[in-house]
Task: inverse folding
């Protein structure tokens, strides 16, 4: 039993690299209690509070007038994407207060036929992040150690330190790529609604998860995201997931992204290149190859 | 994409390039340096999708064609790589073992400068403080931090630590803190963890960057040496850097067979 749990998906990430254990210590200490931007850090309270503050905030701007979001941003309440629902915590995963603000019960609205799938994933599969796959979307934004946002005229880049993944987001009105092209990180297109960057991501796969605990989606996932500066050092991040193959209804997470301290740099973390634990993980768990592995 | 497919791709791309070359060359004279796109801070605007069209990833030096490899003129100034005697023997051994020993065969990050001339598009996204180089190959990210110092070493990174500054309109990037785990091409040219690279990016037209890299490594070479090539802007109106996640595809294949 002990051996089996030691090789559980929850620890796959910790095994993948030594630095991840440091992350767990730094970011995984359970729910954050101190306020962020003058708001409670608990998502269901942070969301309305941050929205009201953002409406009154005049953000710093780039020369083209767009709000300036350049910098390195820390998803301070997401615990390195261990879980996204309420969780009491155990030997493997830290306590978590749900990041879900809609539906109000704070739970992922899975269709009845998928009600037990998350538990099955946790019991039998390796978190795709533990095998160094790309994070997918929206997990990129709240995976361990956050993202660097680089803002150029008509394009954003989000660069994550964990396993050197990235997403580029044109904001030039260009259309999505053809539907038959499927990408771990999807095809993202952005536009501005007032001071909010709105990102629409399609062309995703079912090869990525939403959390270490096994929350999942299909290749029909469509992700809408909204990034709004609440103050100079805080972004309100909202994301709505639609996936008629897996979810009863669209659902929404909201959380703060907090600016890392001045001088913080996103550095290289090779993952696959230095990951030697996969044979051990595969003794007790399977590689995740999508929702319908028989197809 | 196996190698024979990628050879076809690059041959097709070179054919296309030859076809479009005359109008592109004519633009140089007409536009001149003053017409370069500029960023908010007045520096050349390098944002866009770029790709090298040489055969340097197969072999940095002059080489005849062989099965799966297009012939190519080298990108090394003077064509000679000044290896120390032991290192030349090592390079020749690498060449013999290249089918399995090339880090690209393992889908590892390719390092610098190889990422810049690998046969994949890459996107540059830059703000005044930070230049991201994002390649289609194995979702490689390269961060070039502007006007700042290397952190204290020693550190070993696949892509090294890149610090950039502008010399007039030329972006100069100093890169160090490498591993000895990357090669310079598929022909077995290599370096040690002491590699130090100085890159110079000079936009010559809105669609061309002259790229130079000086390589210095006292463990492997007898003197610094230089490569020079052109980076071309991908002009397709819908161009997008996609994904080539080779290690993930290999793992998924083996999982399906289990």
Result:
């Amino acid at each position: 039993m002990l051996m089996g749990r030691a090789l559980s998906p929850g620890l796959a990430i910790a095994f993948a690299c030594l630095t991840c254990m440091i992350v767990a210590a730094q970011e995984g200490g359970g729910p954050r209690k101190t306020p962020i931007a003058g708001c409670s850090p608990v998502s269901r309270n942070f969301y309305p509070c941050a929205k009201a503050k953002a409406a009154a905030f005049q953000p710093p701007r780039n020369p083209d007038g767009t709000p300036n979001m350049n910098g390195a941003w820390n998803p301070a309440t997401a615990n390195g994407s261990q879980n996204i629902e309420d969780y009491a915590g155990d030997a493997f995963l830290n306590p978590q207060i749900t990041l879900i603000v809609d539906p109000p019960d704070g739970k992922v609205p899975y269709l009845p036929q998928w009600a037990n799938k998350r538990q099955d994933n946790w019991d039998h599969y390796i978190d795709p992040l533990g095998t160094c796959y790309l994070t997918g979307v929206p997990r990129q934004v709240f995976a361990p150690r956050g993202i660097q946002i680089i803002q150029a005229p008509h394009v954003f880049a989000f660069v994550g330190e964990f396993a050197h993944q990235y997403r580029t987001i044109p904001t030039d009105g260009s259309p999505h790529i053809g539907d038959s092209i499927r990408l771990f990180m999807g095809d993202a297109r952005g536009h501005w609604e007032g001071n909010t960057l709105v990102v629409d991501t399609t062309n995703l796969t079912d090869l990525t998860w939403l959390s270490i605990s096994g929350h999942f989606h299909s290749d029909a996932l469509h992700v809408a995201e909204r990034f709004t500066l609440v103050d100079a050092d805080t972004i309100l991040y909202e994301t709505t997931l639609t996936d008629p193959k897996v979810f009863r209804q669209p659902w929404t997470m909201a959380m703060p992204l907090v600016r890392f301290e001045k001088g913080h740099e996103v550095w290289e973390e090779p993952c696959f290149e230095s990951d030697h634990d996969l044979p051990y993980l595969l003794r007790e768990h399977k590689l995740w190859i999508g929702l319908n592995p028989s197809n | 994409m196996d190698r024979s497919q990628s050879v076809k791709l690059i041959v097709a791309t070179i054919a296309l390039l030859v076809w479009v070359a005359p109008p592109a060359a004519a633009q140089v004279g007409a536009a001149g340096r003053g017409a370069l796109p500029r960023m908010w801070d007045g520096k050349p605007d390098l944002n866009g999708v770029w790709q090298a069209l040489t055969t340097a990833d197969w072999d940095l030096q002059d080489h005849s064609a062989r099965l799966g490899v297009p012939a190519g003129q080298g990108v090394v100034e003077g064509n000679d790589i000044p290896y120390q005697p032991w290192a030349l023997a090592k390079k020749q051994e690498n060449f013999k073992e290249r089918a399995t020993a090339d880090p690209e065969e393992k889908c590892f990050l390719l390092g610098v400068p190889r990422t810049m001339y690998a046969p994949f598009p890459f996107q540059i996204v830059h703000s005044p403080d930070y230049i991201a180089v994002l390649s289609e190959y194995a979702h490689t990210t390269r961060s070039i931090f502007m006007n700042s110092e290397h952190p204290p070493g020693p550190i070993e990174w696949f892509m090294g630590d890149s610090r950039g500054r502008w010399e007039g309109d030329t972006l100069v990037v100093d890169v160090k803190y490498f591993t000895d785990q990357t090669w310079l091409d598929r022909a077995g040219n290599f370096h040690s963890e002491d590699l130090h690279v100085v890159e110079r990016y000079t936009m010559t037209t809105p669609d061309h960057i002259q790229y130079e890299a000086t390589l210095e490594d006292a463990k492997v070479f007898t003197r610094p040496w230089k490569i020079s090539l052109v980076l071309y802007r991908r002009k397709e109106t819908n161009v997008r850097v996609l994904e080539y996640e080779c290690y993930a595809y290999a793992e998924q294949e083996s999982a399906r067979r289990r």
